[in-house]
Amino acid sequence: MNVGKTIGNLLTKVCMSKYCSALRSNDLDSQRDATNFRQLLQREWNDRVNRIAIKWSQRLNRMKVAAIPLTEDFQSFREYLMNNIEQLSDRLKKCCAAHDWVQLAKFVMSRLILFNKRRRAEVRELKVSEYLARPNWKQDESGEMALALSPVDRLLAER
Questions:
Q1: pLDDT value at position 80?
Q2: Is 117 helix (H, G, I), strand (E, B) or coil?
């Protein structure tokens, strides 16, 4: 949650409260002060305070060390996904249910994200037609693609 935005909302509510109190007591100077401060807050809060707070927060987030999950965790998560994908596929072969289709789509997308963890946005936007129309790298006569891959990537590409 954005702390700067929360403080800005709180200050706006305080201005409204002061304005209402001044309105009840018929104090025109306090009404004008509350209105002026609210307008000042609306016009300058994002530029002078909130933007600086957001930059500071983003800098702190970039400085955090990202903990990489253990390989065993990835493997157990992959097994969980694959088991659920198989179960839902079998269930859908027997009886088509919308809920099962949705669950299967979520598990398949999770599996793709896990496999392609560096480019999550690409997986989310990948269309079935694009996936089916992808080039078949195994039929590449020159073998140029296979030569460009590391041995581990080559092994993964064969799967």
A1: 93
A2: coil
Q: What tens digit of pLDDT does each residue of 34-69 get? A: 888 888 888 777 777 777 777 888 888 777 766 667
Query: Which amino acid type is present at position 35?
Result: T
Q: What is the mean pLDDT of the chain?
A: 79
Rounded Cα distance between 7 and 48, Å, is: 13
pTM above 0.70, yes or no: no
Distance CA 20, CA 103 (A): 52
Q: Kindly state the tokens that stand for 26.
A: 């018929």
Which amino acid does the sequence have at 130? Answer: E
Q: Where are the alpha helices (DSSP H) in 2-132?
A: 3-24, 28-45, 51-63, 71-94, 98-115, 120-125, 128-132
Extents of the domains making up the chain: 3-63, 71-158
> In the numeric block, which tokens belong to residue 5?
């935005």
Q: How far apart are CA 47 and CA 145, in angstroms?
A: 50
- Report whether 8 contacts 41 (CB < 8 A): yes
148: tokens are 């460009």
Q: How far apart are CA 81 and CA 75, in angstroms?
A: 10
Cα angle for residues 127, 129, 130 (degrees, 5° grid): 65
Q: Which tokens in the block code for residue 139?
A: 């039929």
